[in-house]
Amino acid sequence: MRLSDDDRPGRGNRAPARSDERREAPRRDKRSGGGNGGGRRRKRKGRSLLGGLFYWTMVLGLWCAIGLGGLIAYHAAQLPPINQLTVPKRPPNIAILAADGTLLANRGETGGRTITIGEVPPYLPKAFVAIEDRRFYEHFGIDPVGLARAMVNNLRRRGGVQGGSTLTQQLAKNLFLTQERTAARKIQEAILALWLERTYSKNQILELYLNRVYFGSGAYGVEAAAQRYFNKSARSVTIAEAAMLAGLVQAPSRLAPNRNPDAAEKRAQLVIAAMADQGFISQSAAKTALTAPAEVPERSGAGSVNYAADYVMDVLDDFIGGVEGDVTVLTTIDTKLQASAETTLVEALAAQGGKLNVSQGAVVSMAPDGALRALIGGRDYTKSQFNRATAAKRQPGSSFKPFVYLTALEQGLTPDTIRDDSPVSIKGWEPENYSRSYRGPVTLQTAFAHSLNTIAARLIQEVTPKEVVRTAQRLGISSSLQPNLSLALGTSEVTPVELTTAYATFANGGQSVLPYVIREVKSSSGKVIYARKGSGFGTVVQPQTLSMMNTMFHEVMLSGTGAKVNIPGWEVGGKSGTTQDFRDAWFVGFTARLVTAVWLGNDDNSQMKRVAGGGLPADIWGKYMKAAHAGMQPAPLPGGLWRSGPKSIFDNGAPVAAARPPANTQTADSERSWVPPAPQEKNLLQKLFGG
Fold first, then answer.
1. What's the pLDDT at 668?
2. Helix (H) or strand (E) holding 367
3. Which of 373, 343, 344 is closest to 619 using CA atoms?
């Protein structure tokens, strides 16, 4: 029998109770959570959720790995091929040494020479490891532990003793990359760090790091930094100094000990504590370093050694060509004379420069063979690097007159030859004496000692300006000289080093001189690249003429413009020079041991307040030269001093005076240094000179 739709279970108003009970029971079990079937379904769903999370985590991780790999591959492609990668050469350093072997200055891009890890105390490299990368000897170039620690410290805003980058990564950045802070650079840095670790040993990496890291103030490498901040080699630094250097690399500008000593010291204390904590130094050594912190010595003086160092660099290429590696240049500079010349010049300008309106000066001091012993190119190198000793061309004034007189002597005149000091007019040129007064007939020796302009003018007219130019060039003046009559009064410009070189000929027996500052150049391996040998062009002033010139120079120091700065016991020659309107003032003088020139003036060529060569320049010259000769055994000038004897009124066609007083007779009036002509000769002299 078929049931109607209404009769089927679940349909209509009536349904069998048994059937209802069978249907309702499971629902109650499901709602109540009871029964084994529901628990199995919950477990399957939980496992499905965990599995899904694991699955999608794996998928996401895989895609991240693929993305990271692609990113690394992309940035790696921007680098040179790994098999062609090489550590770039460090720019060469030129260590410039004084004559006694002490360091004068470093030149080059790095500021100091390369140093090996075996040369420095063991605690120096360990200081960098302690503060910059304590797991340096454990990681493979990248330190996940250190990176995680740095991240945690940054999140907690706590200052740690290490950053996230390893020493190897820092080296990679310094060697190959820029200083920009980007994700791309960090990826490349990590790749290069891995390459460095695979290619070099830990000690080699540490040595490269110590020689390449920047320490501020133009110092690249630990040797340059030790010289810059402590005036010593990295081989000699103490634990406290090593700690300060290691702490400096984090922020060279902010932690520079010469600018921020407190911050530098606090950072150094952290380094010392880290070194002790890691067992690099003992606790007692750490306590000693903490109680005796590093001190940056004050730099005294005007930095004049840099003028000498600059001059070395100017001429170095002429001797060795291009510099491929570190070299050491042994110079002729005497540190004591250099310091003395600097102090004397700076103190004189500080005391009198303001009231006399003189702002600059230069000092050149050389041995008679041309070896430069002191070179001061200005008042303060830190304020002006222009080297006035070698590059400033200024009018020498009367200090140029020796070339006029030498030319006259070589043409037959003598120191006793008489010329008339009276107003002179040559084709409209009317030079006057400094005193605006005239002495009448005088010897050349007297005219030279008192720098009479009229006599120099008459002489250059006699011997011709071209001959004077030839004489000056023969003695070492290389600047262009104008062959005109005013040349006699020093109107053509020369440099202080040129004038000193020319005067050296009078101090060495008449030999030509080539100024030099480099004695020897060696490579970092000790190989001699250049060694100076004797140079020059032989005799350029004959003995008889030389003795006459030295006698006239000596008279300047006895009775002329140099009398107040003479050096007792020594045969000294000298000559002052003052240009028109007091724009330049010179004093140049010599002994058998030393030749020195002093120039004073202003860079803008403005007038000084009546500063003459026999004034402040002579004072500076005298103070320096007396100090330089202290303790030396006096020596006569090579070639000796000329002595006049009884002569006829005519000597080689020129009237002469009788014998002059002995050389040690000092006279206040130059006219007392010669014997007046006899009455019968006076009329002839008046006819000759028109008075």
1. 30
2. none
3. 344
Q: What is the 3-state secondary structure (H, E, C) of 308-319?
A: HHHHHHHHHHHH
| CA 617 – CA 598 distance, rounded (Å) | 6
Rounded Cα distance, 661 and 559, in Å:
12
Query: Looking at the predicted structure, is the pLDDT value of residue 225 above 70?
Result: yes
Strand pairing class (573-578; 584-590):
antiparallel
Residue carrying structure tokens 């990668």: 85
73-119 per-position pLDDT tens digit: 555 555 556 666 788 888 899 999 999 999 999 998 888 999 999 99
**88 contact partners, CB below 8 Å, separation of at least 6:** 175, 176
Higher pLDDT, 155 or 443: 443
d(CA 548, CA 546): 5
Backbone angles phi, psi at 440, to 5 degrees: 85, -155
Nearest Cα to 90, choosing from 202, 211, 229, 195?
211
Q: How many CB atoms lie within 10 A of CB 676?
A: 13
Residue type, 458: R
The CA distance from 83 to 486, in Å, is 71
The rounded distance, in Å, linking the Cα atoms of 513 and 135 is 62
With CA atoms as reference, report the closest residue to 446 among 410, 490, 412, 414.
414
Beta bridge mates, 573:
590
Name the β-bridge partners of 392. none
DSSP labels, 642-666: -------SEETTEEB--PPPPTT--
- Beta bridge mates, 364: 375, 597
- Give per-residue burial for 418-435: e unless 16+ CB within 10 Å, then b: bbbbeebeeeeeebebbe
CA dist list (Å): 373 to 38, 140, 268, 367, 500? 105, 54, 40, 7, 12
Q: Of how many residues is the chain composed?
A: 691
Q: Please tell me the distance from the alpha carbon of residue 220 to that of residue 213, in angstroms, as a whole number.
A: 6
CB 496 within 8 A of CB 345: no
Determine contact, residues 341/372, Cβ cutoff 8 Å.
no
Q: How far apart are CA 437 and CA 535, in angstroms?
A: 46
* Residue 670: count of CB within 10 angstroms of its CB: 20
SS3 label, residue 330: strand
Single-letter residue type at 404: V
Q: Is-contact 149 242, C-beta < 8 A?
A: no
Instruction: Count the neighbouring beta carbons within 10 Å of the beta carbon of residue 2.
Output: 5
CB atoms within 10 A of CB 381: 21
Q: What is the dihedral of CA 440, 446, 448, 454, to 10 degrees?
A: 0
Tokens 């019968």 appear where? Answer: 680
Residue 246: which of 233, 260, 264, 262 has the closest Cα? 264
Span 580-625, pLDDT tens digits: 999 999 999 999 999 999 999 999 999 999 999 999 999 999 999 9
Contact status, residue 326 vs residue 524, Cβ threshold 8 Å: yes
Kind of pairing, strands 327-331 and 94-97?
parallel
- Residue-wise DSSP of 293-311: --------S--THHHHHHH
Distance between terminal CA atoms of the chain?
178
The pLDDT tens digits for 465-524 are: 999 999 999 999 999 999 999 999 999 999 999 999 999 999 999 999 999 999 999 998
- Please give the positions annotated as active site: 132, 398
* Cα gap 344→336, rounded to integer Å: 12
Contacts of 674 (CB under 8 A, 6+ apart): 416, 442, 443, 445, 446, 657, 658, 660
Residue-averaged pLDDT of the chain? 84
User: In angstroms, rounded to a whole number, what is the distance separating the alpha carbons of residues 40 and 274?
Assistant: 59
Strand 528-531 with 573-578, pairing: unpaired
